[in-house]
Amino acid sequence: MDALRPRQDPERIGTYALLARLGAGGMGMVYLGRSPGGRLVAIKVIKDEITDHPEALTRFRREAETVRAVRSAYTANLIDASLSAPPYWLATEYVAGPTLSHAVRERGAFPADTCRRLFAALAEGLASVHGYGVTHRDLKPQNVILSPQGPQLIDFGIAKGAGDTALTATGLAPGTPGFTAPEVLMANQVGAAADVFALGATIAFAATGRPPFGSGPMDAVSYRAVHEEIDLAGVEPGLAALIRACAAKDPAARPSPAEVITRCAVDSALAEDPYYQSLANLAEEVPVSALRAAHELPTMGPGYVPTQAPSQPGYVPTLAPQGTTAPSAPRSRRTPWLVTVAVAVVLGATVGVVVWRTQQDGGGGQARGGGKGPSTAASKPAGNPSPGLTGSAQPSAEQTPKGPPQFIEQTAPSGDFWSGRAHQCNLPAEEAAHLQFQYSVTTGEAYPDDEVPPGKARIGYRLKYEEPGLDPYYISVAVKPLHELDAQGSPTANDNNRQLGYTSKVTNMYASVQTDWKYFTYPDDFTYRSGGKVLPAMPLSRDPGEWTVTFRHVRAPKDYKSIVCDGFMAG
Fold first, then answer.
1. At what angle do helices 112-131 and 257-264 cross, to 10 degrees?
2. What values do phi and psi take at 106, rounded to 5?
């Protein structure tokens, strides 16, 4: 839970006073709010950058419809929503408690008896959701909140009702690698049995403290989910047998939620479990300063009257000023505000995965996937449309790092170019970024209300969720102007810039707190390396126009691959 940012966040959404930031995702920001009567709510606000995307709005409205339809003790109920005009948002009950992911990260694997009780409670929650004709499609430790009364299922952004049509792009599977069932990955066959697979994988994580199918690139994890056994080393045999049944490759072989409950044979409530009770102190408290600030806001502004619900399906009446629209967050013009690389069409919950399907004749594999850019890039180099556009050398024995690399240097022409008109780069990523990788690019000119002064750019990255125990993964950021640079680092007349550009120091993406933002500021943190010289970065004002930003996965100073390309307008 983070404090509000006065120059970025509004004081209220609709009639709700905002107290703090609960988190951010591909779809937008989630705030902790207070209702006029003093009730705490979680408010998800769809971000400005995707409000004009029809599929994003359809997905957001579907989430509101789903949460409104499912009235369960295991879900946070919908309280309010505004789905007819920007800003689009929905408000649900605020559930206090850590996520299962956070609890395991802080305390380690759960005892077997606690896992059984959690197993039964989540199975009962799935049975309740399925009873409404809804499949969750993204059950995972991050989407389970451990409230004092029992677990709560959250994030129905890609949930699917019996009458829904698919919104997933061709070749992309919904869900999260490691928790997505093989039939979903291979054929996009989504059903209640897929939720049971995710349930087994989620309990495996709780019982071992490890990702159920290992870590690494999302295509590798998905391959293991399709072809290899779930990791249950060290799990009590009876519990392991039930998890293994839920994670069966054949959906017809998996037990139903009711059968899971029977096999768990619990004799007491999860809320009475001593270990589960000890997790309550992991819940984040609302900052006292936020509560004090909220109490200083008027409960309701003058002239607030209930609006009439339009005919649009999924709309829930809210309160708004008479004759005006509800106060909204200042519209950001940053490029981009927040991007989750492994998310298709910048939607918060659908990920593009590449699965290598074994041919019936035992021959080579064929990649299953589609789309453009890093969302569906395999961990192998994507291939270049013409020679000399890789921007990096092929690995060699001489390039094997003897320690953490400190910088990168150009070894081949770099053909990545960002187009301001198209808002995208010309080349796909050379390898897939980590599934949870998020980045931001902000300039002082484009967003002057931010904490980035004019003439500078701030480039950041983080993981959306913690992934403990991973080997070092080194990153460097390259920023290059439209025009090529001479030996002194000054722009020339050549606007076909194939140089690597100014680069940052190499950092380990998994170091420190992975979910904290790590920022580089241009020009302060960038240098230009040429002919053995190390020159400071030039001001943005010296070359107005389209600047390209690439994130590079670094193995050695001359061995690196692009994982993300973006850019910004300077001048």
1. 150
2. -85, -35
Query: Which residue ranges form the domains of the chain, and what is each CATH number?
Result: 12-95+285-301 (3.30.200.20), 100-282 (1.10.510.10), 380-570 (no CATH)
- Counting Cβ atoms within 10 Å, is residue 524 exposed (0-12), middle (13-18) or buried (19+)? exposed
Cα atoms in the 13 Å half-sphere on the side-chain side of 255:
20
DSSP code of 350?
A: B
Q: How many CB atoms lie within 10 A of CB 111?
A: 15
Q: Are strands 40-46 and 28-34 parallel, antiparallel or unpaired?
A: antiparallel
What type of residue is 305? V
Does the N-terminal peptide bond of residue 401 adopt cis geometry, omega within 30 degrees of 0? no
Closest CA to 341 of 463, 184, 446: 463
Give which of 246, 259, 251 is closest to 127, Cα–Cα.
259
Asked if the model's pLDDT at residue 270 lies above 50, the reply is yes
Strand partners, 80: 91
Give CA 495 to chain center in angstroms. Answer: 35
Cβ atoms 320, 307 nearer than 8 A? yes
Segment 212-239, tens digit of pLDDT: 999 877 788 889 999 999 999 999 999 9
Provide mean pLDDT across the span 169-185: 71
Q: Which residues contact 402 (CB under 8 A, 6 or more apart)?
A: none
**Spatial distance between the Cα atoms of 157 and 65, rounded to a whole number of angstroms:** 10
Spatial distance between the Cα atoms of 115 and 383, rounded to a whole number of angstroms: 45
Instruction: Tell which residue, 134, 185, 201, has the closest CA to residue 369.
Output: 185
Helices (H), 367-424: none
Bridge partners, 319 (sequence order)? 306
pLDDT attached to residue 445: 62
pLDDT for residue 327 is more than 80: no
Tens-place pLDDT, residues 80-107: 887 777 788 888 888 889 999 999 999 9
pLDDT of the residue at 522: 94
Question: How many whole angstroms separate alpha carbon 475 and alpha carbon 568?
Answer: 20
Neighbouring residues of 450: CB distance < 8 A, sequence distance ≥ 6: 7, 8, 334, 442, 444, 458
Separation of first and last alpha carbons in the chain: 36
Residues 6 or more apart whose CB falls under 8 angstroms from that of 333 comprise 446, 447
- Which residue, among 523, 526, 514, has the nearest Cα to 541 in the 3D structure? 523
Q: How far apart are CA 523 and CA 537, in angstroms?
A: 5
Q: How far apart are CA 130 and CA 126, in angstroms?
A: 6
Which of 431, 442, 444 has its CA nearest to residue 475? 431
Identify whether the C-beta of residue 81 lies closer than 8 Å to the C-beta of residue 92: no
d(CA 177, CA 482): 37
Euclidean distance between CA atoms 416 and 548, whole angstroms: 7
Query: How many Cα atoms are found within 13 Å in the side-chain-facing hemisphere of 76?
Result: 27
Higher pLDDT, 347 or 156: 156
Using DSSP, state whether 85 is helix, strand or coil. coil
Residue with tokens 């992309």: 172
Q: What is the pLDDT of residue 320?
A: 31
Active-site positions?
138
CA dihedral 70, 71, 77, 82 (to 10 degrees): 50
